[in-house]
Design a protein that fits this description.
Blueprint (H helix, E strand, L loop, with lengths): L2 E5 L3 E2 L5 E8 L8 E8 L6 E7 L4 E3 L7 E6 L4 E6 L8 E9 L4 E4 L3 E5 L2
Parallel strand pairs: 2-11
Antiparallel strand pairs: 1-3, 3-8, 4-5, 4-9, 5-6, 7-8, 9-10, 9-11
Length: 119
């Protein structure tokens, strides 16, 4: 059973960098052909895909967030990390990490973590 768990600060100040980690158990983040994504849901809005890192380490980002987003991984810890810079209150959301097999649907999700951007 694969499990994903998000961790990071629940409150970030405007203009700072949001940093979240997804810890994965029950499966390796380097296993072919899985992709590991960050997805968020602002209050009252739908899910927004932010970006992903592949089993190979290749990254892809949402065009709307690409300039502020960085996803990296630590294979020794089986974790991948999201960094979102220059945050504003509009970045307030529940942030999820999730796994997909290639272009298939997401089959495992973390429980989500609330991040609020406020001074």
């Amino acid at each position: 059973q694969v499990q994903l768990q998000e961790s990071g600060p629940g409150l970030v100040k405007p203009s700072q960098t949001l940093s979240l980690t997804c810890s994965v158990s029950g499966g390796s983040i380097t296993t072919t052909y899985y992709w590991w994504s960050w997805i968020r849901q602002p209050p009252g809005k739908g899910l927004e895909w932010m970006g992903a890192i592949a089993y190979s380490g290749i990254t892809y980002y949402s065009p709307s967030l690409k300039s502020r987003t960085s996803i990296s991984r630590d294979t020794s810890k089986n974790q991948f990390t999201l960094q979102l810079s220059s945050v504003t209150p509009e970045d307030t959301a529940v942030y999820y990490c999730a796994r997909a097999n290639g272009l298939g649907p997401y089959d495992y999700w973390g429980q989500g973590t609330q991040v609020t951007v406020s001074s």
